[in-house]
């Protein structure tokens, strides 16, 4: 398999995620678009790790500035991104649900950010 295919797929996924963040009005769909962008980054991290390791095979460690690099470091970074995505979903969904309980809507363009917005107690 050519190494450019995962890079192109990752770039396409990231582009779709950016389009979803820019164009969507529903907060839950925006969170899904952010997840799509994070998964594109995971794909690119793992692909870069595999492709760079195969390209640098046989090169002495001193020649590329990380002589003690562990194999699979792209996967480790991808794992950190997955943990970050899980935390983002938890916090983001809690904020969206609380806003829905207060305002009965999740449209982003209707969110008031000023301090004197009317408060609905229920």
From TrEMBL:
This is NADH-quinone oxidoreductase subunit K. It is found in: Cell membrane; Membrane. Coiled coil: none annotated. Keywords: Cell membrane, Membrane, NAD, Quinone, Translocase, Transmembrane, Transmembrane helix, Transport. The keyword Magnesium does not apply. NDH-1 shuttles electrons from NADH, via FMN and iron-sulfur (Fe-S) centers, to quinones in the respiratory chain. The immediate electron acceptor for the enzyme in this species is believed to be a menaquinone. Couples the redox reaction to proton translocation (for every two electrons transferred, four hydrogen ions are translocated across the cytoplasmic membrane), and thus conserves the redox energy in a proton gradient. It comes from Actinoplanes ianthinogenes. The chain crosses the membrane at residues 6-22, 29-48, 76-97. The gene is nuoK1.
């Amino acid at each position: 398999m050519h190494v450019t295919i995962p890079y192109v797929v990752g770039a396409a996924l990231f582009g779709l995620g950016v389009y979803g963040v820019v164009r969507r009005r529903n907060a839950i769909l925006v969170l899904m678009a952010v997840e799509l962008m994070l998964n594109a980054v995971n794909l690119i991290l793992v692909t870069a790790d595999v492709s760079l390791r195969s390209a640098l095979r046989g090169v002495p460690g001193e020649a590329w500035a990380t002589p003690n690099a562990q194999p699979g470091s792209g996967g480790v970074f991808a794992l950190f991104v997955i943990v970050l995505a899980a935390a983002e979903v938890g916090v983001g969904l809690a904020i969206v649900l609380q806003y829905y309980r207060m305002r009965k809507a999740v449209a982003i363009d209707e969110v008031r950010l000023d301090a004197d917005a009317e408060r609905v107690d229920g």
